[in-house]
Amino acid sequence: MSPLVREAERTLLEPAALSRQDAEKALGRLAGAGADLGELFLQNRVSESWALEDGIVKEGSFNLDRGLSVRALSGEKTGAAYAEDIRPEGLANAVEAARSITRAGGQQQVKAPAPAEPPAIYGGGNPITALGEQDKVALLERVDRAARRIDNRVQEVNVRLSLNFETLLVMATDGAWAADARPLVRLDVSVIVAEGQRRERGFAGAGGRRPLSSFSHDWPEDLAREAVRGALVNLEAVDAPAGPMPVVLAPGWPGVLLHEAVGHGLEGDFNRKGSSAFANRIGEQVASTSCTVIDDGTLPDRRGSLTVDDEGTPTEPTVLIENGILKGYMQDKLNARLMGAAATGNGRRQSYAHQPMPRMTNTFMQPGDKEPAEIIAACPKGVYAVNFGGGQVDITSGRFVFSATEAYLIENGKVTRPIRGATLIGNGPEVMTRVSMVGNDLSLDPGVGVCGKEGQAVPVGVGQPTLLVDKITIGGTAG
Amino acid sequence: MRQDMDIRQQEGELTGLAEAILRQAKRLGADAAEVSVSEDIGLTVKVRKGELETLEFHADRSFGIAVYQGQRKGSASTSDSTEGAIEETVARALGIARHTQDDPCHGLADAGLMATRLPDLDLFHPAPLDTEAALAAAGACEAQGFATDRRIVNSEGAEAAASQSCAVYGNSHGFMGAASTTSHSLSCVLIAEDGNSMQRDYWYTAHRNPQSLEAPEAVGRTAAERTAARLSPRKVATGNYPVLFSPQAARSLAGHVIGALSGGAQYRKASFLLDALDTEVASPHLRLIEQPRLPGLLGSASFDGDGVATAEKAFIDAGAARNYVLSAYSGRRLGLPTTGNAGGVHNLRLEGRAKAVKTLLKDMDRGLYVTDLMGTGVNGVTGDYSQGAAGFWVEGGELTYPVHEVTIASNLKDMLRQVPAVGDDPDERGNIITPSVLIETMTVAGA
């Protein structure tokens, strides 16, 4: 038995006076009702956040969320019950509610536990207890002082530190018996700058599944500088152009393009149901030959990484698109079984009170061979987009948007004036075939991504090298 | 899970729990404290292609506490309401308060402002958590969707949901309020296909009282009509055109205005309507009001997140900003009394010079009717607005072909002042109620 599982059982089962035998008995009830898969999921999540405003740390909050979920899958049906009550009675009620979807007369076997023991890809334990309160307060104050020192046009500084530690235990009738202990940290700064009548905001944030002590010494000051820089650039911004044109995307966080343009459309559930613009297209050309896109939950320390997913499946690098050819989808257990595919470690849930579904982890494009400067020089007139707020996709039509918060005009192959924030809109499969140049400078985002799907939010990562998209519509106001 | 559960029976227990938590806070050294306790139970049934797809039951109880020591504040919350967890959670909040710094604006709302009259707002209409009935409603809804148009070829399913909640708020002034509510909804997401495209759209009905829901067949039919109408969309040429927001799309416009008038955006100087009180911010016929105590509505409440009595008011009247959206804290920051909006607005309604939508289309003659918005391209500090949009092209005052993959852009300060009229078609289904809204001109970027 892995130390992770032992520790999770100690955190989750013992305080509730639940034993392994109780859990096995519950799985037996689910299998006995004919469920193709019966699953228990127990979770304990502690979070703490501290907020600075007006130069002082004026708020902090602590949250403890504990609960259990029972699922029974039968064909395409799912029965699920959630309760905050991790006790024998709560478990028994949830089991009876979940198994009510199965038809009478079925009978399945519980497989012997076969614990998955992938190597832990993040460490450092609970980040909340790893640092004293005074040190947390001091960290926020450093960001505030640095931001105000950089430029006297800085009017307001808001800083937030968020620390999270989640322990989970998954046991299922297919033999899964897995646990994870996931740290998650994040530091965000938002500034308002003013000059004359103009006011602008700038943001910066960073984090990951790693201890605060692992960040560089100047981390708080670097974040402050980045937020102020972004805000000051926007003070000078002119109206963005309107209409279709070439766009060069900077490396890193602009990888939100991939997340929206192809990522969601390649989640197993939408493809099983045939509701995605990418359904039934495996083996087809869906992007230019320079595009290779991977989802990889195994990257050490990254925000989107997981040792095992929320169904206990170890994560893996999943090739979605290789040299422009669609290779595979991201799967959870339900959709993998129904599509005759393997689970890829992408079964994720916001919490015990939600159902797992196929979700991205860290989604990125492999680097090409072009120098970034060469890519910009190849674009006589267009837009260079450096930073984004977020995006959204309609997976059925393939239509997607992502909203630039820092962007510049490219004139005669040179980056010139900054432009006001604007939304870019396109069609995923179309836009990916228009990626004509791929840089050699792959970088991953700084660790602030949150992905929403059917009302559930999970932390994710994105990344890409510098890219040239030959044509995409820019939603500015200038003719 | 008991099928006939009535969560009002928990009010007494939850109130007792809230009182115990406040006593614990006082015992451990808090000068003042406020607590929220809630319990929520519910059932969701989803049918896809005529078969049950998911059946979900949930039962959650959680509480949150804020404690004050002098002018310092700490908060904590948990889903664990065992005695040990209460003590630990209160201790955590106090532990945090020891490390935060003095803010003279912190503290409970003034005792004299606590709601004293807690009328029955008719928000509790339980129906048995009946799986079979929910299954039948969702099934009938989706089946009608498929039957309405042969181009409806697929479905993401129809979902029926029912839940009961009991929320208790109390503070160390001695205020204690409880509100039990029910919510019932039915929604349907369909997929249509023709030779040129595949499109999705949806429709839903939601109400406190299940008797007031739209019939399942009506929801399915509307979902199908909306979805099929989107097939074979085109882009339009980039240019400046009048834009008519549908009632559903207009809801976000009211949301942006409330965000800009909120106390937090004002005192952080992060609002495109900064210091706008008593100045003209919108076309003179526009009003934006809230009516928190109307019976039976989804947004109704008799007290806010500070325990302060809610009251009817105008945020915008005759085009001028008349109130910010304030809690006790943000009010103190701005030197203004709270408006009873800790936690948000209640039954917000946008009103103006109303015309039939047909007339609005005639008035605009040529432009874009927006039914769907996408993206995060709204800058609350500057008002810069750039969103993805889909809808229908208006030519000669009539709806013609569906439009997609375009953006609409302007600045909210200008948009609010360029509203010649609104529709007579408010969408009453939520906490923000808006009619169609016509904007004189925006930049539409397409082909």
Quick structural overview:
Chain A is built from ten helices and 22 strands.
Describe this entry's structure for a reader.
The complex is a heterodimer of chains A (479) and B (447). In chain A, helix 2 packs parallel to helix 3. Chain A has two domains: 233 residues, PmbA/TldD fold (2-Layer Sandwich); 234 residues, no CATH class. In chain A, 61% of the residues are buried. With 479 residues, chain A is an alpha+beta fold. Chain B has two domains: 223 residues, 2-Layer Sandwich (PmbA/TldD fold); 207 residues, no CATH class. Chain B has nine helices and 18 strands. Chain B has 447 residues and is of the alpha+beta class. In chain B, helix 3 packs parallel to helix 4. Chains A and B meet through strand 1, strand 2, strand 3, helix 3 and helix 4 of A and strand 2, strand 3, helix 2, strand 6 and strand 14 of B. Strand 2 of chain A pairs parallel with strand 3 of chain B, so a sheet runs across the interface.
Which labels suit this protein?
heterodimer; A: 479 residues; alpha+beta; PmbA/TldD fold; 2 domains; seven-stranded mixed sheet; six-stranded antiparallel sheet; 10 helices; globular; B: 447 residues; five-stranded mixed β-barrel; 9 helices
Task: Provide the structure class of chain A.
Answer: alpha+beta
CATH T-level topology of the largest domain in chain B: PmbA/TldD fold
Q: Specify the oligomeric state.
A: heterodimer
Number of strands of chain B: 18
Mean pLDDT of chain B: 96
Q: In percent terms, what proportion of residues of chain A is strand? A: 35-45%
Which structural class do the helices and strands of chain B define?
alpha+beta
Fraction of residues in H or I helices of chain A: 10-25%
What's the helical proportion of residues of chain B? 10-25%
Would you identify the regions of chain B where 5 or more consecutive residues have pLDDT less than 50?
none
Radius of gyration of chain B: 24 Å
Q: What would you call the shape of chain A?
A: globular
Assigned CATH class of the largest domain in chain B? Alpha Beta
Q: Could you give a short account of the major beta sheet of chain B?
A: 6 strands, antiparallel
